TrEMBL record:
InterPro entries: Glyco_trans_2-like (IPR001173), Glycosyltransferase_2 (IPR050256), Nucleotide-diphossugar_trans (IPR029044)
Designated name of the protein: Glycosyltransferase
Native species: Levilactobacillus fuyuanensis
Domain Glycosyltransferase 2-like: 10-149
Chief location category: membrane
Keywords: Glycosyltransferase, Membrane, Transferase, Transmembrane, Transmembrane helix
Pfam families membership: Glycos_transf_2 (PF00535)
GO molecular function annotation: glycosyltransferase activity
Location within or outside the cell: Membrane
Length: 338
């Protein structure tokens, strides 16, 4: 199915302390948007939406300056830092009311922005979701590459449908974003939710570029937190693993007790102080791990039932860029084959 209407596009760019990269990346996105409008692939009132995730530098000041230079630049500013997932959700939530197509991309433009042209073409062919997928991880360190592969493998074993080597570079239609917004988790794992939406999807491959400026916003601590979010949001397998491990340990303890009883009947002296202490330490550590895993689930339930907002927007120059007479016009599709 192909679209018969020129779509309105919004490019959502989450930003956290991006002062070093915005002066370079913003013009690149502007040129891409201009080419798309020149070729009538998107409407002339399409926008670039920067979401300032509580930056501590001049990120918001730069976004404001860009807005004054060109009305295609718009922004949302959080009241504090809420995290990249919240920034993505906020940008898409705002854009779904005004845009037919929404592209999300990191501000450092390590993900190839030229792929956006191909994404628009795939959207015109009828795909609601177009994933940008890396075909080369040579720019990553050995540790990051290995842990990423291990994460995708483990999530696959848990039955979670992820797109390997896909981050947050993607295109989504307005109806796909609306479906995503209907998910009410306080801390949604976006990469796991989107494949479950069920809309027509495809992939485009690219080679990621080295970072030109600034520093990575995903240190080891955040990567571990991100991996835990993915695992705990989609599976109760860790709790079951604790159950099976507990049963295995109990079975082993029963065999040890049986062996000690046999030795006692035979009159053998069992010294084993060190082995007893080691067993106590092992069981104590296992119990703490088990309680921690269960506590993570309880804590997440506690967070969800409070129904606090995912984020608080302090400033919004995006929504005001559209007059009430400019709502999104749903794309109409003909039924010709492609």
């Amino acid at each position: 199915m192909k679209s018969s209407v020129i779509p309105r596009l919004t490019i959502v760019v989450p930003c956290y302390n991006e002062e070093p990269v915005l002066p370079t990346s913003a013009p690149v996105l502007r040129r891409i948007l201009q080419r798309l409008t020149d070729h009538q692939q998107v409407t002339t009132d399409s926008k670039i939406l920067f979401v300032d995730d509580g930056s501590q530098d001049r990120t918001w000041a730069l976004i404001t300056d860009l807005r004054q230079q060109d009305t295609c630049y718009t922004g949302l500013k959080f009241s504090r830092n809420y995290g990249q997932e919240a920034a993505l959700m906020a940008g898409m939530q705002a854009a779904q009311h005004h845009a037919d197509l929404i592209v999300t991309i990191d501000a450092d433009l390590q993900d190839d922005p030229q792929l956006i042209f191909g994404m628009i073409e795939q959207a015109r062919e009828g795909f609601d979701i177009v994933y940008g997928v890396r075909n080369d991880r040579s720019t990553d360190t050995w540790f990051k590459r290995t842990t990423a592969q291990g994460f995708y493998w483990f999530m696959g074993k848990l039955g979670v449908d992820l797109i390997p080597n896909h981050s947050d570079f993607r295109l989504m239609s307005q109806r796909a974003v609306a479906a995503l917004m209907s998910c009410q988790e306080s801390h949604p794992f976006i990469r796991g939710i989107i494949p479950q939406l069920g809309f027509p999807a495809t992939k485009l491959y690219y080679k990621r570029q080295p970072r030109q400026a600034g520093v990575s916003k995903y240190p080891l601590r955040k990567m571990i937190r991100f991996a835990l979010d993915g695992i705990l949001s989609f599976s109760v397998a860790p709790i079951r693993a604790v159950l099976y491990a507990g049963l295995l340990i109990c079975g082993g303890a029963f065999l040890v007790l049986l062996w000690i009883l046999i030795q006692h009947i035979r009159g053998a002296v069992v010294t084993g102080w060190s082995s007893i202490m080691a067993s106590l330490w092992f069981l104590g550590g296992f119990q703490l791990v088990a309680i921690s895993i269960i506590g993570e689930y309880v804590g997440r339930t506690f967070t969800e039932v409070k129904h606090r907002p995912r984020f608080i927007i302090q400033s919004d120059t995006y929504s005001s860029a559209f007059t009430p007479a400019q709502p999104v016009v749903p794309l109409t599709r003909d039924h010709s084959s492609h």
